[in-house]
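Re: that chain you flagged

S.,

Sorry for the slow reply, it's been a week of failed gels. I finally had a moment to sit down with the sequence you sent. For the record, here it is as I used it:
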Amino acid sequence: ESEGVVVDEETGAKGVTKLQILKDICSKAGVACNINEFLGSEEYIGSYDDSVSARTYISFLAEQAGAIPTINRFGELIFIYLNELVEQEIPIDLVESYQNGEKFKIARVVYEDAIRKFEAPITEEEIIGDNLYLNTANPYIFSQEQVNGIYEIVKDFEIDSFKTGKTIGNPAIDKYDLIKIQEDNTIDFKWDGDTTDREAMEIMTGFG
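Prediction finished late last night. Pasting the structure tokens below so you have them in one place:
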């Protein structure tokens, strides 16, 4: 592994913010960055490990912000947040088959390595729901305060997993939208787009 000191090209100061690092990664990769702030974005980073890929750095920065990195339909890097996902409905009569899965609800956020353990909320009451485990390899998560902040962003996010057969594609739906199968067949649905069948969907989660 090799490590280098981050230097602000404008001021010459050693250390730049997490937001500057993110935008610099995007600039070098030729990708537009549609992110202007996030949790911890103004905190300074003094060094970097150049053996870590840009993709991994972006995932680290997103995770410590309680976000998920993705590319939108305009080719821009964005951070999406679980409790701000756009809900899109697909009538059940437009899917080949439908099978309910498990229900998940984020009730606790946990960071635990061999030395430290941070979790939120801190309470003696019984927690009903699922744990969201953070990546212990993330160098930008190192305090209880950060875990508290992530918890406040993702808490109470709830989802039902499901499987379908093939379904008609809808260009209005983004890959990061929250899909709901509308089981009321009385929906008046007019289709003006591509009628090509899409592959079966399987909506799962990474909760534990």
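What I noticed first: Confidence is low (pLDDT under 50) at residues 186-208.

Talk soon,
D.
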